[in-house]
Amino acid sequence: MKGDQMKFGHRSRGYSYILPSMVFIVIIFMIPLTYTVVMSFLRWNLLRPDLGIRAAGFSNYVRLFTDPFTLDTVGRTFYFVLGAVLIELIAGLCIALALDTEFKGWKIVQSVLLVPFMIAPVVVGYVWRFVLNSDYGPIIHLFRQIGLGGLVEKPLLSNPSAAMPVLIVADAWEYIPFVTLVLLAGLKAIPYEPYEAAFVDGASSLQRFYYITLPLLRPSILVAVVIRTLTSLRVFDIVFIMTGGGPGTASETLAFYGYRTAFQSYNVGFSSAINMLTFAIAVVFTILYMKIIGGGKKYV
Amino acid sequence: MRNRFLLFLVVLLTVSCFAVPLQLSSEVGIHTDAWKTRMEGFTNETGIEVEIQQFPYANYLDQLMLGYTSGRVEIDVPYISMLWYPALSIANYIYPISDIPGYEKIDESDIPGIRNAKLNGKTYIVPYMNELGGIIYRKDLFEDPTEKTNFIAKYGYELQPPQTLEQYRDIAEFFNRPPDLYGVTLMGRRSIFLATHFMQRLWAKGGALLDLNMRPIFNSEAGIEALEEVKYMFQFANPAAMNYDFQEALNEFISGRSAMAEVWTTGMFYVEDESRSSVVGRGGFVGFPRPEEKLGEKLPMLYISWGFSVSSAAPDKEAALEWLLYVTDTQNEVEAAPTGNIPARFSALNSPALAESFPWIGDFAAAMENCIPTPIVPLIPEGGSIVSGIIAPAVSEFLAGTKTAEQALNDAVKEVDRLMRDGGYY
After folding, report:
1. Is residue A3 part of a domain?
2. Which residues face A45 on adjacent strands?
3. What is the CATH number of the domain that holds A123?
4. What pTM value is reported for the model?
5. Is A161 touching B (CB cutoff 8 A)?
6. Fewer C-beta neighbours within 10 Å, C or N terminus of chain B?
7. B243 vs A47: CB contact, 8 Å cut-off?
8. At residue B290, does pLDDT exceed 50?
9. A contacts of B92 (beta carbons < 8 Å)
């Protein structure tokens, strides 16, 4: 009996410790989420208050999943997310490995590397618009100087097949430093002993990387990939600034579609359904990553 | 001592209750700067204090809508785009100004485009700034004797600001000498700006967006021709123009890199701005051309207007009307205009004092008199969604080559049809 009371006391004390954070989570996360879920089942247009707020049942979702435009937009969003995260991961890992040795000026390099990440995405969008301007943009000028002007004769941001890759590059430019920092922190945390043992066993540097570095870096890779996937799914600023979703619909992502529905059509119900779809995709991605990269272990 | 202090507090509270300033709101922009110069004079003349809240254009409407929806807005006189008032009036967020006693003192017959400000016979917005979509052109190039000679030799008629679509095409081709000079500057970025190029041509060719039953009809022959004409003109524009918005288009024109720019009248302020324009004093304005066979007809032309409305929740609507009467008075419009406004009243446009400041104003007034000022979006709550959310992407898809003109317009018509059904129009 006394033991049960003690157990209960321990447990309730434990709950009291996590209570503040639970309250915080409910206020910050659960209330808006619930509100969005509810709105996604409503027919509510801010421009037509005369029509009132009406129950829509599943009609917003039916429209969402039967409209071919949604499928195209999801496809474009996946293209963006996979492209951006892959480039950021590979480049970030390479740079992190290169920086994993202390050398003179290490801190300066690290600080310089952070600059793109410190810039607001809106500014990044404008910088890249300037850089790619077909009149005076340095990249276009460079292409012309090396005799590849033909490739950029049609402005990249107005070219339906080039607009999305360009957005991916701009996004990668901004977030490679973030991935690098996360992976660098992971590399610093790997103990030296496994490398010593491998060295004694005659493992090559490639084998050391593949059998020691990569497995021990998994938690950091998982963190970087999950965070970047979730933020890439919500990409809006650079799309808005650089292409406005165009040309045509070539660079329209789910977040932009949601914005357009919410703030051009003021269709709150349908926009909420789009946001719920984005949320569902984010959850699926996270679970997949945790299974694939995390190997079923609880890292987060 | 304590009693005196209490008395002082009571007096202060009473005074503050009675002297609530009239709350104005607006975007951040040059025509707002113009009427802001009248605020002090208004207070001096009427004793009514006024305060202003300004928001960036990009989120001004969002702020208004969210504020009104939540009932937290404390704005008496919102200065708004003509395009916004249908949604605000249907929701009863703004009040029919013509119902305020004393409204008859506002001379409506002097304001072109006022019919657009009325819903069910009631006026909801009093225009303060009026402008038209048209062409800004380089007068120096058009008046250059060598250019004139060369033009007549090539095309067989005299070089002059384009009156017809055929002339517009010829002139754009004639002056297209890349990379130093382009024939015309257009706005190809997927936005409402791009939609203006299509709408102007659609109207010029006798087409329309919706029929009388509010059904979309812009996938007509006129619509297809209009869309193809937009694409045709882009060959005389800088390739970079495919991603231009209004500001970038103006920048190109005022840096002297194009002979014409298809924008709207406000562009003339930028042309005359000595701090950034290299073509000061060399710009002219002409209304949008039409097909040759329609010369002399009054046709719809892109009409952009901002004006004053009154919130339904405004506690003192008479004070709001006082402000409207004062600020839209001809003399006040003329005096405020040089700060950056194109007055709405004909009497102000035709004022000799204004012609001195704006030598081009006569051409604008003439264009205004010879057209049917037509807002770019239909004046219904869904208007903005139709043009920005459906027409602009359709035009952009055609320009990008991902759809044919017919496909792009047919798909857009289907979307508009669904929107109108959802809105209960049929």
Report:
1. no
2. A267
3. 1.10.3720.10
4. 0.84
5. no
6. N
7. no
8. yes
9. 49
Query: Which one-letter DSSP state was computed for residue B390?
Result: I
The structure tokens listed for A105 are 């000026």
In the structure encoding, which two tokens stand for residue A221, read together? 């890779």
pLDDT digits (tens, 9 = 90+) for B95-109: 999 999 999 999 999
Instruction: Tell me the mean pLDDT in the region B217-237.
Output: 97
B345 touches chain A (CB under 8 A): no
Q: Chain A within 8 Å of B423 (Cβ-Cβ)?
A: yes
Pairwise CB contact (< 8 Å): B385 & A263: no
pLDDT digit string, tens, across residues B51-94:
999 999 878 988 898 888 888 778 999 999 999 998 899 889 99
Of the partner residues A48, A51, A244, the one whose CB lies closest to the CB of residue B190: A244
* Cβ–Cβ contact B397 with A under 8 A: yes
Helix ranges, chain A (H): 2-25, 31-40, 59-66, 68-98, 106-118, 121-131, 138-145, 163-189, 193-200, 205-208, 214-233, 237-242, 254-263, 268-292
The complex's ipTM works out to: 0.80
The fold for domain B132-301+378-422 equals D-Maltodextrin-Binding Protein; domain 2 (3.40.190)
Q: Which residue of B has its CA nearest to A63?
A: B418
- The reply to whether B181 touches chain A by the CB within 8 Å rule is no
Strand B22-27 with B50-55, pairing:
parallel
Say which DSSP state B419 is in.
H
Q: Is B161 left (phi over 0), alpha (psi -120 to 50) or beta?
A: beta
Asked if the model's pLDDT at residue A294 lies above 80, the reply is no
Identify the pLDDT of residue A291: 84
**Is the CB of B388 inside 8 Å of chain A's CB atoms?**
yes
Element (H or E) spanning B300, and its range? strand B299-308
